[in-house]
Amino acid sequence: MTTMTYRESVRAGLREALQRDSRVFLMGEDVGRYGGTYACSKGFLDEFGPERIRDTPLSESTFVGAGIGAALGGMRPIVEVMTVNFSLLALDQILNNAATLRHMSGGQFSVPLVVRMATGAGRQVAAQHSHSLEGWYAHIPGITVLTPATVTDARGMLLTALEQPDPVFIFEHAYLYPMEGNLEEGPMAVDITHASIRRPGRDVSLLTFGGSLWKALAAAEQLAQQGLEAEVIDLRTLRPLDRDTLLTSVRKTHRAVVIDEGWRTGSFAAEISAVLMEQAFYDLDAPVARVCSEEVPIPYPKHLEEAALPTVEKIMQAARSLYKGAAT
Amino acid sequence: MAEFVMPTLGADMTEGTLVQWKKREGDRVTKGEIIAEVDTEKAAIDVECHVSGIVERLLTKPGDKVPVGTVMAVIREEGQPAAVPSQTPQAAPQAMPPHPASPSAGKTTPSPSSGGRLRISPAAKKLAAERGIDPAGLQGTGPEGALTLEDIARAATGTVGAATPAPSAERQARMRQTIAAAMARSKREIPHYYLSTTIDMSRALAWLAAENGRRPMTERLLSSILFIKAVALALRHVPELNALWQEGGAVRSERVHIGTAISLRQGGLVAPALHDADRASLGDLMQRFQDLVKRARAGSLRSSELSDPTITVTSLGEQGVETVFGVIYPPQVALVGFGKVVERPWVAEGQVMPRPLVTVSLSADHRVSDGHRGGLFLAEIDRLLQEPHSL
Amino acid sequence: MTTMPSNADAREQILRLLGDIAPEADLTALNPDVSFRDQLDLDSMDFLNFVVSLHQAFHIEIPESDYPKYMTLNSCLAQVTASRP
């Protein structure tokens, strides 16, 4: 087993993709000469040349649109958008073009585009660089939304994404880039159709994805010491959602806490909660609980930022509130 | 008309199963007489009636499990006319807090939500339907008192063959749960402080040996009776330890009912009361203690014995331990522990000599008393044990 | 006039008295030379009750100072048979 950082794993995936398929190229702000805002493409300009590692103007709409065009023309573009906040400038291209062209052309056109972007808070980069909007993207039919949380998924999901005939959006939680982890054995490309049980348990299901996975696992560890065995489910793919895995878990534990760094109102956690109401209502022994971000622009000061985000303590409290011992 | 309700027989009892009525409708019952046998998590208990009169109606059937506070029978007190049938109270279980000494009751009443709907989880409701259980009268333990799967499952096992006391393995499991709940509550809510002192038992034991020599075999005393009596008398000097914590404050008890921790042979323990221990003679206490131990182990304690101890005495010395660090049984505010009587070097009148010693410890609720008063209490026990003839 | 019990009868009766006090115990596994209290987890109340039941069954007077002589099955038997007239 190899240990590497999440950043190195993304980089390994990109290099593998660039090496194995000449149709693959990377473009985005600062991906070339600067080596990528998060250093995921460091050294690639020298290694692969300016044709395949392309710095773009600061215009998300333009370069995402160019990516769509290249994909339509037979290429396999990987577009890096610096943060999910900036991706809103490209929303017209994403929603009105990338997600719709197969449908509007009666299946004649494919858009095999991969867009990667950083999401999430926790690094004191304030309200214009810290939001978690992957739940919004999961609203859009016609695209695939991936949230790799582990080192193995960071590399593998990118490679699987490039095999898809339709647009795939990969949300990399920026807090995870320096995190070290073990690269699991097996084929590089990973399955993206299933959620994963990251820790089995019988008393409560913690349903989460992306950066919150590690908080949920830490909470499960501490809950276990208090006698509450939590099952941690990593959703991995928000669209299309693997309902079976999470329903199976909740039908076993009868209790669910959904952890989502997005704002609570209209969050992806709300969608999960609705799925549980629709398909597991008679298996629920307590209301579904949600741990989401506070409904404020993510603050800059460290203590306020932390207060606004899901924490291990909040997750534990939510899990315990589903049992009588809510006071403990 | 008086109502006979399911009594609370311990701080954490929430429900009980009627095993049998000892009276029939129309029978006369006197205050203190046993009217029913009730099965709880701990044991089958003979429940005494609190009033005298004629049993007008029996509302609960043997085998029924009902929450604490449920009206089980209506008793027409002396001199009252018979009830008109239409006025007969309904058998509907009531959610009223049964006993002021049971603060937990207020938190987990089965709370119908607004609109009178029962607060029950969807999964619990489904299970109740499958098992044919009416959840209406059950006590919920989930968030905000909601009925959960576990509540229904428990009711389901309780319903099957409920007219007979539960089998011992199941009772043991439930007793463990009851003890767990009481002890967890104690450690959660009561700020304990602990004091201990070592007492020279040579005078007390010499007196006891002489006393037992005079007594016929069947009336001999155990040293634990001296301990119980000494505790009861010492409480007169430090009465704040003889109290119950009720609704945010300590309420002193005029009478001294000593709960005596009795371990059951199959595991678990109960701590039924020796009533008015301060006023009873040693011989009387011994006889009642013997009877209590026998009935505790046979599972036939009386309701008043379980519900009203005002302090607990535990004596773990049998197992050879020297010091007890006890956990207070809520809503009581103190527990006194006696260890094993051991022979050890002791300095008296400037000389080291072997003496039988016992370590007595006090676990007390710091909300109610302070270490200084606790210390006086232990000193008083010591003083009393030095004058065993006065006990 | 009563017939004196044989040794085997006395043993049988002592075991029955113990069984009343510790109904869950497996008395067939009892080591006759090791203290009951340790083997059957008897407390002082149980032991007192046992001695009183011996007193009633065998009509013997047992001073408190002799209680230690009744701690094992064999010593009990010896005491009970020795007390016969």
Tell me what portion of residues of chain A adopts beta-strand conformation.
15-25%
Low-confidence stretches of chain A: none
Average predicted confidence as pLDDT of chain A: 95
CA radius of gyration of chain C is 12 Å
Distance between the termini of chain C: 13 Å
CATH architecture of the largest domain in chain A: 3-Layer(aba) Sandwich
**CATH homologous superfamily heading of the largest domain in chain A:** Thiamin diphosphate (ThDP)-binding fold, Pyr/PP domains
- In terms of quaternary structure, the protein is heterotrimer
- Which structural class do you get from the secondary structure elements of chain A? alpha/beta
Query: Outline of chain A, from the CA principal axes?
Result: globular
- Can you tell me the residue ranges of chain C where pLDDT is under 50 for at least 5 consecutive residues? none
Number of helices of chain C: 4
- Class of secondary structure makeup of chain C: mainly alpha
Main sheet specs of chain A: 7 strands, mixed
For the residues shown, what is the average pLDDT of chain C?
82
Question: Which features would summarize this protein structure in a list?
Answer:
heterotrimer; A: 328 residues; alpha/beta; Rossmann fold; 2 domains; 7-stranded mixed beta sheet; 5-stranded mixed beta sheet; 12 helices; 14 strands; C: 85 residues; mainly alpha; Non-ribosomal Peptide Synthetase Peptidyl Carrier Protein, Chain A; 4 helices; globular
Topology:
The complex is a heterotrimer of chains A (328), B (391) and C (85).
Chain A: E1 2-5, H1 6-20, E2 24-28, H2 44-48, E3 53-55, H3 60-72, E4 76-83, H4 91-98, H5 101-104, E5 114-119, H6 134-137, E6 144-146, H7 151-161, E7 168-173, E8 180-183, E9 196-199, E10 204-208, H8 212-225, E11 230-234, E12 237-239, H9 243-253, E13 256-263, H10 268-280, E14 289-293, H11 302-308, H12 312-321
Helix pairs in contact in A: 1-7, 3-4, 8-12, 9-10
Chain B: E1 2-5, E2 15-21, E3 28-29, E4 34-39, E5 44-48, E6 53-58, E7 65-67, E8 71-77, H1 103-107, H2 122-131, H3 149-159, H4 168-189, E9 192-200, H5 202-214, H6 223-234, E10 243-246, E11 249-252, E12 258-260, E13 262-263, E14 269-270, E15 273-274, H7 282-298, E16 301-302, H8 303-307, E17 311-315, E18 334-338, E19 342-348, E20 351-365, H9 371-386
Parallel strand pairs in B: 5-16, 12-17, 17-18
Antiparallel strand pairs in B: 1-8, 2-4, 2-7, 3-6, 4-5, 6-8, 9-20, 10-11, 12-15, 13-14, 18-20, 19-20
Helix pairs in contact in B: 2-3, 6-9
Chain C: H1 7-21, H2 36-40, H3 44-58, H4 73-82
Helix pairs in contact in C: 1-3, 1-4
